Please model this.
Amino acid sequence: MIAVRDRQDRKAFAKLVDYFAPRLKGFIMRSGTSTAHAEEIVQDVLLTAWRKASLFDPHRAQVSAWIYQIARNRQIDVVRKESRPVPEILIEVSPTEPDAPQILAMDQETEQLKHALARLNENQREIIEKAYLGELTHQEISSQIGQPLGTIKSRIRLGLERLRHELKGLR
Model:
């Protein structure tokens, strides 16, 4: 690992791969991961070990401990990614055209929302419009207007709370 870290030695890395790949695969598969998935994780772990070799410190950990820690972290990432809830498919309740009272109610709600948005302070309104009407991420908004990400998130949260209060009687 020292040769990989200091000289990007490909032969030394090939030896590490030959030694650790089957062991990592077994380690990962023992947790119930499929063979194909385990092979992907092993490949990712070894690629990370190559890319982050400069971070290896033999005084802090042995090579095996360092590589197995990378594998464990990658496996946790994969499990978290897989266990994220997937939104259910939205089922259209009424396939028919909305009738006149529904159209009128939607128009009234739209007007109330416009008025509630107009009552927000300018900073909150601008950010909420960019986030929900412009469909920008918080990071994109932060970059676009030159404000810290935390400020963007706070303004959105406070603006939405105020909108909720303003529109409380709507539904």
